[in-house]
């Protein structure tokens, strides 16, 4: 196993990560258990001791079920124990807002949540879903608290910041990807992430780790001005 960090351990303010893809073979995340353990060891070295891993649930591409994810998390924790890595992994999911997800809410299908009934959701990157507000309303009515994953990456929000506060006012929390602070996705995503921090509209920071490059990104992001400024907000990561 690679020793990622031989230098002095930094002291981050974030000890719980709520967005990652660390179960091999079920989405576009890690390809092997070895890769997963290596990434978790790296996160632990950076002070992250609890990881909520959130495989994609996209019915047409990654039709994962709660039982599949829970079984994967159980095996992952067993492997962490055997490798003497002290981090703990919790099961979650990243739900794509589409017709299947809307039907699942209406039918009371079992949905994976974490913390205080938080549920992580994402949308298409280009266009705002027509039923976005309806989905948030339905989730809130069912007792869930939606977390919108990486809002800084959505073009419809990059082009219209006025859409952001109404989403928050519906009881939705916003989760920024750490890699956005180093411009990994695009200049527009970086600019929007910084805007959200300046406006105090960030509730969580997540790694959204899929592979080892994202681990290196996380380490770089921790050193950026806006990651540190976000850490001065009332982030909810460590309440999970």
UniProtKB/TrEMBL annotation:
It comes from Reichenbachiella agariperforans. InterPro entries: Caps_polysacc_synth_CpsB/CapC, Pol/histidinol_Pase-like. The lineage of its organism: Bacteria, Pseudomonadati, Bacteroidota, Cytophagia, Cytophagales. The keyword Ribonucleoprotein does not apply. This is protein-tyrosine-phosphatase. It is an enzyme of class 3 (hydrolase). One of its GO terms (molecular function) is protein tyrosine phosphatase activity. Belongs to the metallo-dependent hydrolases superfamily. CpsB/CapC family. Keywords: Hydrolase. It comes from the Bacteria. It catalyses: O-phospho-L-tyrosyl-[protein] + H2O = L-tyrosyl-[protein] + phosphate.
């Amino acid at each position: 196993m690679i020793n990622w960090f031989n230098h002095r351990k930094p002291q981050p303010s974030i000890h719980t990560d709520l967005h990652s893809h660390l179960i091999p073979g079920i989405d576009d995340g890690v390809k092997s258990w070895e890769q997963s353990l290596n990434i978790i060891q790296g996160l632990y070295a950076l002070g992250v001791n609890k990881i909520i891993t959130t495989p994609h649930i996209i019915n047409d591409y990654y039709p994962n079920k709660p039982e599949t994810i829970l079984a994967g998390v159980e095996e992952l924790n067993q492997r962490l124990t055997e490798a003497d890595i002290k981090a703990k992994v919790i099961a979650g999911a990243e739900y794509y807002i589409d017709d299947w997800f809307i039907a699942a809410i209406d039918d009371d299908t079992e949905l994976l949540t974490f913390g205080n009934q938080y549920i992580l959701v994402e949308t298409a990157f280009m266009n705002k879903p027509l039923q976005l507000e309806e989905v948030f309303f339905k989730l809130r009515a069912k007792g869930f608290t939606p977390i919108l994953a990486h809002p800084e990456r959505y073009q419809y929000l990059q082009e219209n910041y006025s859409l952001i506060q109404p989403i928050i006012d519906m009881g939705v929390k916003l989760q920024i990807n750490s890699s956005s602070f180093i411009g990994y996705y695009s200049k527009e995503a970086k600019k929007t992430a910084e805007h959200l921090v300046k406006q105090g509209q960030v509730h969580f920071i997540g790694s959204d780790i899929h592979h080892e490059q994202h681990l290196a990104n996380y380490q770089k992001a921790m050193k950026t001005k806006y990651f540190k400024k976000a850490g001065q907000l009332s982030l909810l990561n460590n309440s999970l």
